[in-house]
């Protein structure tokens, strides 16, 4: 049996007036996800445990099948694992966004979706200027997403660094950022680091060029999502399958690294609507020749919702449906011993431009999966199926290990 998880990051949403009271999924044209629901069973699951912050780190960890309450150690540590960074006992990893701050507000947490090539030059400059003055080393990630490894010092012990209150910058788009600057014992170190990044970035040729082209410059670092190294039970021991992970972002690939899965890097995978969909599908299909399990992640719906754009979110969902889900339904036709699972990892609300907790829809079909009465994919359709998996990390166990022929038994 082959198992394929297709993850549309942040697809779920609340009903929107702009969509006539429908959600973005319900308003989008999604014949392929509808087909999965029609062929198999649908329901709701809760990827974010109660009391934990809703985010792609916690949500994807759940969808992979790990309980975040037991396993989560901080987003940046997961991303560091994919970057080949080994954290010493006295080191803490921080996600360091390159952000655009303007007139006291968080104008854009992506710096206008700055390219990785541009960002690499900026990160190199930050290392050259700041590493001699601060206990930190920066590592280039993808686009605006980078990692800073901070060594404990008198200005911040490991415990102080981990305990710092650092707001995710995507939570405050368009808002005054001053109230959301780091807080806690290590706040002075982190704020000094941010302040010191400003002149380095302001005077850099990359930003001067971006401004000349009418693009947003990266004006500051923004540290958040800190944590220590993550250890996970290997996937082959947990679920009895080998597998591969395809994603543009270090976070999802880092979970794969920690789980002992093969991580595939696809040229042109950007984490945005312009990502290389066909390259991701080709990499996944190739991986199925040597593995039992593939996890294919697409970031674009989440990014579009963070921008508050209904049109872009619908476009991202439709691209995911047509260019990712569609080819795997075609694969299923000639490989009946295959199961498909389509799902998001959390809500990303257009109305607030940020994440939210709550049960989100899944649909699965394929070998041995019974058919229920649900005929389309979406939040309300899934709710009508009557299945609720309250412990979201158990969804993939049902999918891989012991899915009953009677879908109602999933409840």
Features:
15 strands; 16 helices; five-stranded antiparallel beta sheet; alpha/beta; eight-stranded mixed beta sheet; globular; 20% strand; 411 residues
List the helices and strands and how they pair.
Elements: E1 2-8, H1 24-27, H2 31-39, E2 41-45, H3 56-64, H4 68-71, H5 75-82, E3 91-102, E4 105-108, H6 116-130, E5 136-142, E6 145-151, H7 158-163, H8 187-202, H9 205-212, E7 220-227, H10 235-239, E8 243-246, H11 250-258, E9 262-264, H12 277-287, E10 293-298, H13 300-306, H14 310-334, E11 338-343, E12 347-349, E13 354-356, E14 360-366, H15 379-384, E15 388-389, H16 395-402
Parallel strand pairs: 1-10, 1-11, 2-15, 8-9, 8-10
Antiparallel strand pairs: 2-14, 3-4, 3-6, 3-7, 5-6, 11-14, 12-13
Helix pairs in contact: 2-14, 5-11, 6-8, 12-14, 13-14
């Amino acid at each position: 049996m082959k198992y394929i998880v297709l993850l549309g990051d942040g697809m779920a949403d609340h009903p929107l007036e702009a969509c006539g009271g429908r959600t973005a999924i319900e308003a989008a044209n999604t014949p392929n996800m509808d087909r999965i629901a029609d062929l198999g069973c649908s329901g709701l699951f809760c990827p974010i445990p109660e009391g934990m912050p809703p985010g792609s780190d916690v949500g994807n960890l759940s969808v992979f099948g790990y309980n975040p309450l037991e396993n989560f150690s901080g987003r940046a540590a997961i991303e560091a694992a994919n970057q080949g960074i080994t954290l010493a006992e006295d080191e803490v990893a921080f996600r360091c966004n390159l952000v655009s701050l303007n007139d006291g507000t968080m104008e854009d947490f992506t710096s206008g979706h700055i390219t990785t090539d541009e960002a690499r030059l900026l990160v190199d400059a930050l290392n050259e200027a700041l590493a001699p003055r601060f206990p930190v080393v920066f590592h280039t990630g993808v686009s605006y997403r980078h990692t800073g490894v901070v060594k404990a010092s008198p200005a911040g012990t490991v415990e102080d660094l981990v305990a710092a209150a650092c707001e995710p910058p995507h939570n405050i788009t368009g808002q005054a950022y001053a109230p959301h600057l780091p807080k806690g014992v290590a706040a002075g170190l982190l704020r000094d680091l941010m302040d010191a990044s400003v002149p380095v970035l302001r005077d850099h040729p990359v930003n001067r060029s971006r401004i000349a082209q009418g693009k947003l410059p990266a004006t500051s670092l923004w540290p958040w999502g800190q944590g220590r190294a993550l250890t996970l039970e290997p996937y082959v021991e947990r679920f009895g399958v080998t597998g591969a992970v395809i994603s543009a972002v270090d976070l999802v690939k880092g979970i794969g690294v920690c789980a002992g899965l093969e991580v595939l890097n696809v040229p042109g995978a950007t984490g945005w609507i312009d990502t290389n969909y066909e390259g991701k599908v080709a990499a996944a299909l190739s991986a199925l020749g040597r593995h039992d399990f593939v996890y294919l992640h697409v970031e674009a719906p989440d990014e579009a919702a963070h921008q508050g754009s209904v049109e872009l979110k619908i476009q991202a969902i439709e691209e995911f449906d047509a260019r990712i889900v569609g080819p795997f339904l075609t694969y299923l036709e000639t490989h009946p011993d295959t199961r498909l699972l389509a799902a998001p990892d959390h809500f990303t609300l257009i109305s607030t431009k940020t994440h939210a907790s709550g049960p989100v829809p899944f649909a699965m079909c394929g070998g041995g999966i019974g058919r229920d009465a649900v005929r389309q994919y979406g939040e309300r359709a899934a709710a009508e199926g009557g299945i609720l998996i309250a412990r979201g990390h158990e969804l993939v166990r049902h999918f891989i290990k012991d899915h009953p022929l009677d879908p109602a038994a999933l409840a």
